[in-house]
Amino acid sequence: MSWYVHERTALADALREAGPTAPTLCAGWEARHVAAHVLLRERSPRVGVGLAIPALTPQSDRLTAELADTARDAAGFAALVDQVARPASRWAPVAWAGDAANLVEFYVHTEDVRRGAGPVPPRNLDPELTRALWDRLVRMARLSYHRSPAGVVLVVPDGPRKAVHRTRGEHGTVVVRGEIGELTLHALGRGAAATVELVGAPEDVAALQAVLPGG
User: Fold this and answer.
1) 162-215: per-residue pLDDT in tens?
2) Residue 132 and residue 79: Cα distance in Å, rounded?
3) InterPro entries annotated for this entry (predicted)?
4) Are 111 and 144 within 8 A, CB to CB?
5) How many whole angstroms separate alpha carbon 184 and alpha carbon 107?
């Protein structure tokens, strides 16, 4: 099963519950901007390229803002979310990649919307979904933490652990402990909204937090 399909539905549900102008964990974005971003990422080659090439990011941002502006009212937002809820064309490049390109994207943006207005309890995730998230997390975590001078070990209580980044210089290692969904949020810069515990020397924890936005 492709778990990103499940998370697409969860995102659409979260968007509908939140409404167009609800705050999110994405700085400067309301729920309508998240919806616009997700839709354009799948269906606009120009936005897809802009996400991959920094020089083209302003173009991507402009197109996202323009689409979000069409969804300020309830009717426009409902139409936009209905498009988000529908699967992308099977010819879309991101559709070919399945969970590899889409699972973390949909999971994290669902939580961006759910947690934007303040703390909420974590969702009760299917064990198979968490295993799929862990598989993606350990692959992307090396990039997520690569700027940290402190080493990083991800630990799931009563579950797996993985060293994802080595120490540099005189620094030690920080253990980031939490459930898999929460660790995923931390690695993607949403640590301030994630239920995780950072264990390590204070200077090492500070060094990690200094280079990971929201960590």
Assistant:
1) 999 999 989 999 999 999 999 999 999 999 999 999 999 999 999 999 998 776
2) 30
3) CHP03085, DinB/YfiT-like, Maleyloyr_isom
4) no
5) 9
